[in-house]
Amino acid sequence: MKYDRSHLDIWIKNGLHELEEIVMNRWFNSRSMSGFVLLIVINLNACYAARPNVLIVLTDDQGWGDLGIHGNTNLSTPHLDSLAKKGASFQNFYVCQVCAPTRAEFLTGRYHPRTGVSGVSQGQERLNADETTLASVFKAAGYATGAFGKWHNGTQSPLHPNDRGFDEYYGFTSGHWGHYFSPPLDHNGELVRGDGYIVDDLTNRAIEFIEANRTQPFLCYVPLNTPHSPMMITDEFYEKFSEALPAMRHRDADREDLQMTRAALAMVENIDWNVGRLLKTLDRLSLEDNTIVVYFSDNGPNSFRWNGGMKGKKGSIDEGGLRSPLFVRWPGKIRAGSEIEKIAGAIDLLPTLMDMADVHQDLPKPIDGISLMPLLNDPKANWKSRELFSIRRGLVSVRSQRFRFDAEGRLFNIGLDRGQRKDVSAKYPEITAEMQDLARQYREEMEVEFARNRNRPFHVGFASSTMLPARDGQEHGDVQRSVKSPNNSFFNKWKSKDAFITWHVDVASTGEYEVILRYTCAAGDEGLTMRLTAELLGQPVHFTAAPVVQVFDPPLYDKSKERVKKSHYFVKDFQTLSLGKLQLPKGECTLRLSTDKIIGVNAIDVHSIQLIRK
């Protein structure tokens, strides 16, 4: 047997291990195997060893102040603090005011309005299919890629994590999840049941991924979903805080909900414990020195609690809503304990990680972020001045190295006034005018992007199976949502036969689809017929229907581990019913779910419809 290019292609396509197996098992006794081939194998091994792994932990609704290293004595976060002590910490790192926009900026290096993401629910959270993600870049460079947690940038293919560069996905694609103990989850597009407390479960899966890919470069993304509500946490972590009176309070203490604070602190300590498990895994597998670890949060805290005296919380485009921790650890490459004062943002993480990992790819769209690697090498490096922008409902806030220009046109010297208490616009009229002009330009540019992405339909048929949850539907008539926030809701209290639910969809190709309805039905309400109709321009073109004959009325999930009194999350199991086969035309249409009559008190409760391409 002679060595030729096809064997190198095998390595490129399937990884170094397959080539090694070929060499050892098939060529070992072959006299024709040359020292040149062995040299290739040795060199390829060296390339793999030199290329760093990447572990990214993103938390949900954890504020800058929810860390011991930032001065909060209310809790203990030794593992998170260690990342800063053993790596670099950015003192002025900014994300968006809510979840999905931050994730879009991190994944693409682009301001979120450019990516199609404008909000957190009902389609606004979707990252356009033509955007290039961090995962797709690293996958193309030969990395094994996995994501474990809250995705929040699209559910239906081609927007699902598995379509965006992640080989392995385990978690949920919605903006938040209604229950944290063994809830239904998504594993590579299939509905599965979680195993235990969700953050522990996600971490278990991430550890398994790291172990399975320890001999090749990997990108492991762990977007944990706490301390986002519901404020559910195990007794093990809550016991410490159940009666605690926090020593450090929000700057307006009368606005602080102590129950919420206690739960959040317990949830953050659970995060710290799980991050510790990840770090110990790297150490146990001798991967610590060759793994870049990145840790940050997606927005400010989800309640009024201690946050360094900053103004605003989640949802605000002031300092308190936007400032996030950012720790980057890479032993031997980043000086331990480095503190970087230059402003940076989520848009900078993609180019930074590409630079650090020496991953080169021409990106098809221009990015807004810049590589922070020069600052990681030398925090005092020469650095071009810049501004970072935040937008919320047409209002813009601008951050320069020294100042923040807020949405009301006030100017604050953040270096001296992190709490934004003293407006200095009159003292610096030229700077105020300049930043006001920058805000106007950014607003006008982004409004064009927002307009371009309004009223996008939901994708159907781009994979063999498509799930359309209640979150993505629109109720009509007396149908209601189980909760105000659509993200983890279901439709209920359907009392009139004239009511209905619609989904605006874009079908990949004309074809036949089996319709699976997920529902519950109380005793006495069975016997009605449910119909799904495809409509074009308001006119029905095809429909399928089936009677609901089986009563299925399970209780809501137990909420005894919910630590605040006013919980607005309601979760239960749902039954499946095939409505038959529906012919769908290619392109945009409306799917209407309706019933011919109400038999008892209500029609069914609706979780989702699933369309399986035939």
Distinctive features:
614 residues, alpha+beta, Alkaline Phosphatase, subunit A, six-stranded mixed beta sheet, 14 helices, 25% helix
How would you describe this protein?
With 614 residues, the chain is an alpha+beta fold. It has 4 domains: 5-49, no CATH class; 52-382, Alkaline Phosphatase, subunit A, CATH 3.40.720.10; 391-452, no CATH class; 458-613, Jelly Rolls, CATH 2.60.120.260. The protein is 25% helix and 25% strand. It is built from 14 helices and 29 strands. The strands form 6 sheets. The protein has a 10-stranded mixed β-sheet, sandwiched between helices. Strand 25 and strand 26 (539-547) form a beta hairpin. Helix 1 (5-14) packs across helix 2 (16-26). The chain is globular. The two termini are 45 Å apart. Residues 1-48 have low confidence and may be disordered.
Main beta sheet strand tally, sense and closure: 10 strands, mixed
**Architecture per CATH nomenclature, i.e. the level-2 architecture of the largest domain:** 3-Layer(aba) Sandwich
State the helix count.
14
Note the gap between the termini: 45 Å
Mean pLDDT: 93
Any idea of the CATH topology of the largest domain?
A: Alkaline Phosphatase, subunit A
CATH superfamily of the largest domain: Alkaline Phosphatase, subunit A
Give a short synopsis of this structure.
The protein is α+β, with helices and mostly antiparallel strands and 614 residues long.
SSE blueprint and pairings:
Elements: H1 5-14, H2 16-26, H3 35-50, E1 53-60, H4 78-86, E2 88-90, E3 93-94, H5 99-108, H6 112-115, H7 134-140, E4 144-150, E5 168-172, E6 184-187, E7 190-193, H8 198-212, E8 218-227, H9 235-238, H10 258-284, E9 291-297, H11 319-322, E10 323-324, E11 326-329, E12 338-340, E13 344-345, H12 349-356, H13 373-377, E14 388-392, E15 395-399, E16 403-405, E17 411-413, H14 429-452, E18 458-460, E19 465-469, E20 474-476, E21 480-481, E22 491-492, E23 500-507, E24 511-520, E25 529-536, E26 539-547, E27 575-584, E28 587-595, E29 605-613
Parallel strand pairs: 1-8, 1-9, 2-12, 3-13, 4-5, 4-8, 18-23
Antiparallel strand pairs: 2-11, 3-10, 5-6, 6-7, 9-11, 14-15, 15-16, 16-17, 19-29, 20-23, 21-22, 23-28, 24-27, 24-29, 25-26, 25-28
Helix pairs in contact: 1-2, 2-3, 8-10
